[in-house]
Amino acid sequence: MMNNTRRGVLAAVAAGTLALTAAACGGDEAPAAAPSAGGSAAPAEKIEITLNTFGGGENFAYDDAVAQWNAANPNVQVKYVNLTDRFEDTYLPQVLQWLEAGSGAGDIIAMDEGAMGLMAARPQYFADLGQYGLDSRKADYPAFKYDVGVNTEGKLFALGTDIGGMAMCYRTDLFEKAGLPTNRDEVSKLWPTWNDYLEVGKKFKAKVPDAGFVDGANTVYNSVLAQEAGKNGGLYYFDKNQALVVDKNPGVKAAFDYVQSLSSAGLTAKLRSWSEEWNTAMQKGGFATMGCPSWMLGVISGTSGESNAKKWDVAAVPGGSGNWGGSWLMVPSQSKHPKEAADVLNFLTGKDGQVAAFKEGGNFPSAIPAQQDPTVAEAKNAYFNDAPSGPIFAASVAKLAPVFFGEKHAQVKAAVEEVLVGADQGSVKWDEAWTRFVEEGVKAAG
Amino acid sequence: MSLSVDAGSRTRTVPPGPRRHARPPGGRRFWSWLDLRATPYLFVSPYFILFAIFGVFPLIFTAWVSLHDWQLAGDKTFIGMENYTELLADDKFWNSVLNTVGIFVIATVPQLLLALLLANALNKKLRGRLVLRLSVLAPLITSVVAVAVVFTQLYGRDYGLVNWVLGAFGVDPIHWQNEKWSSWIAIATMIDWRWTGYNAIIYLAAMQTIPKDLYEAAAIDGASPRRQFWGITVPLLKPTIIFTVIVSTIGGFTLFAEPVMFGAGLMTGGTTGQFQTVAMFIVKEGFRDFQYGYAAAAAWILFLLIMITALINFAIVRGIGRSR
User: Fold this and answer.
1) Membrane spanning segments where (chain B) (predicted)?
2) H or E element in which residue B187 lies
């Protein structure tokens, strides 16, 4: 029985070993016409810069931007390769293997927020972008986006592309049922702080007992933590010496306690993000609010479908700021044309590149000049009652404090959030949850 | 080409002629010998060469990796058996072993019994026998992920069909992912839905090779159909049952897709690892936490566990029908 599943596992297990052997013979990836100039002189011959990204659908939405660049720069042609729609289990391991092997990676590679701590701790694999003058772009970015691109040696190795930001999406039909205002400005005024949000939730639950006020633990936890981390030196689970501080960072405990108070008051729908139940609840009005990064708008409209159009709207997030997700571009030091790659990277992360990606795929820009471009600043979302999504998300990231991601940030985050979801859903008791939360964090940090 | 002609010449009558007593030259004798002895090995070699590259080498390489603290794009230090000692003391690993064995038992035992009864029924004279036989195989041709997605929806906590039916009998909604017993049952049903028909067809094929006169003789002696089933069918099916049990053991111990889909695509198998199987544990360690050495050690232990369990099952099944 189960030949298929068995093959899947064997493939997964074998992939590690095979990929490592492939690495030994992968030295033939250099572009055909590779002039081995020092990189400073303008290339006389045509060179090709490979750009590796990930993601489904529109992914990085660079088709237009790359076409613009290629038209303007006949000598430096960009080849845009979206490798896979799966970041965690396909793209990241593959990129790590290429970096380790010293060849195979594109001249520019894209990286998701979750792996930035890991990359920052591997300075040897990336070109110093400051060497090509890209540190002058610092003023274009909110500090928290720029600083993540600075590695453990203090060098700039990555520049930001899109950003999640954070807003609060809500169901107008359920708010109406609960006797709450439905206009987005009035809704935003309901919850200047997270405590107000909790109080609104209690009122809501009293009127509409069969729907959750919020979907589950994940989005609220991350929104609160992003704000709390700013108050605590920008730390999440690791301090700047890569020491685990999951039990010592008061921001983590505050975010944990807040989720506990929400869940204990019965305000969550006890759903796990990305589960089937979560999707169904989104369609059927199983919960009234959800923490909403810019890319979540697409998830909601895609999942809820046309029948729920205009039932969703977007208000400001309590506490006024937050972020979930976003990506960066970097140049591996194995690139044969680091200077040209840095030029392309500068264009793609610059105003024109980010605005083009926003137009093509709705990826919200992280660079401030791009956010101020009328295309972005005046953007409205028809599905969400023409909510002015541009200004809402720009405001949510303007005041964010810089944050620091440890090398094992992604692993610790996944492990501790699992405990939160478990406690919310009842498989972990709340009075044991914090101990377990810390234990799992320690285990994941290895 | 000429080699095979030479090889055949031995068995053929030697044509009369002037060179009748001449011995073939030494070189030809060598080729002839090579042809007879080596050609068969040459013909079977492609399989073994591929097996060496894709079977034996990864196995040995995994063993080598398992002796290191092997981080992807990080440090690799030789640490001997440390991964194994750490693994054997890791309660998360043993939890995943328990889950795998538990799901295997509650999935496989009913599955094979049901398959046996189903095959027996299909072996009878029925109207539309071909259609029935084909339809039990239908679940197998659906994608395993599709099966898992549909079943995961059926077992949904808030909007699932199963809870809706149970609700009609006054049972409170069950959060199937939340407890070990409920998640195991849910996953076991996915496995059984997909594989019962497959095993039934194998049993059916084997049943059709049992001579009819055995049943006739038994019927004349007054044996009931039930007695015939246990006294004739099952003992004669023993080699087939052993085969299905071993294949099921391997499949059950490497269970992966169903629990992953059931747990929203995560490798953790529930918030506290309620249904994390060993295969999921390996992928989590290797490809989420990038501890290749640790994952490789777990893969080797899984290999040994499968060998041991397959042998135990073999011993148990071999005893079937002996006492009867």
Assistant:
1) 47-67, 97-118, 130-155, 181-206, 236-257, 294-317
2) helix B180-207
> How far is it, in rounded angstroms, from Cα A219 to Cα A229?
15
Is some CB atom of chain B closer than 8 A to the CB atom of A99? yes
Q: CA B153 from chain center: how many Å?
A: 27
User: What digits encode the pLDDT tens for the residues A6-41?
Assistant: 333 334 433 433 333 333 343 333 333 434 433 444
The number of domains in chain B is: 2
Q: Is the pTM of this model over 0.80?
A: no
Tell me phi and psi for residue A161, to 5 degrees.
-105, -95
Which residues on chain A are in Cβ contact (under 8 Å) with B251?
1-3, 5-6
Q: Does A444 touch chain B (CB under 8 A)?
A: yes
User: pLDDT at position A19, please?
Assistant: 39
> What's the CATH number for A44-164+326-372?
3.40.190.10
Q: CB contact, 8 Å: B229 with chain A?
A: no
Measured distance CA(A317)–CA(A323) in Å, rounded: 10
Q: What is the pLDDT of residues B18-72, one digit of tens each?
A: 555 555 566 788 888 888 888 888 888 999 999 999 999 999 999 999 999 888 8
Residues B48 and B191 in one domain: no
Domain hosting B35: range is 2-65
Is A278 strand, coil or helix?
helix
* Separation between Cα atoms, residue A258 and residue A225, nearest integer Å: 10
Best interface-test mutation with B: which of A5, A7, A421 has the largest number of B CBs within 10 A?
A5
